[in-house]
Amino acid sequence: MVDQHARMTLDWTVPPGEMTVINAALNSLMIATRPLPGCVGCVLSTQLGDRAGFHYVEEWRTEADLIHQLRSRRFSKLAHLMEGATERPHIEFTVNGETRGIEYAEEVCGPLGNLS
């Protein structure tokens, strides 16, 4: 059975100087995302050491729900945060069993700077 939910997955490793800012931003994003219509789940996990690793996942009921979020101010803030980071995160979108990269968001929203 193919998972019909749409998912955005973000994996991000950051240097010590960015840990606090990225952690706070992703936690805030997660809290704001969970009650949104169409949100099935939103999870953030962290791994701390010399560098911080963040694994952030949003799962949406349908592709239309995901697209609505990609066009939102909330996603624009996340894209801006990613653009300003020292190291770019790895972002994937899984829709209808197919996994794609940042080009999916660019198809939906237009160019997102130099995230690709």
Would you give an account of this structure?
The structure is a single chain. The chain has 116 residues and is α+β, with helices and mostly antiparallel strands. It has a domain at 1-8 and 25-47 and 56-96: Alpha-Beta Plaits, CATH 3.30.70. The protein is built from 4 helices and 5 strands. A 5-stranded antiparallel beta sheet has the order 2-3-1-4-5. The radius of gyration is 14 Å and the shape is globular. It starts with 5 loop residues before the first strand and ends in a 7-residue tail after the last helix.
Question: What is the element layout, followed by pairings?
Answer:
Elements: E1 6-14, H1 19-33, E2 39-47, E3 52-60, H2 63-70, H3 73-83, E4 90-95, E5 98-100, H4 102-109
Antiparallel strand pairs: 1-3, 1-4, 2-3, 4-5
Give me some keywords for this one:
single chain, 116 residues, Alpha-Beta Plaits, 4 helices
Report a brief summary of the structure.
The protein has 4 helices and 5 strands, in the order βαββααββα. It has 116 residues and is an alpha+beta fold.
Element-by-element helix/strand order:
EHEEHHEEH
The description of the largest β-sheet is: 5 strands, antiparallel
Shape: globular
CATH topology of the domain at 1-8 and 25-47 and 56-96: the name is Alpha-Beta Plaits
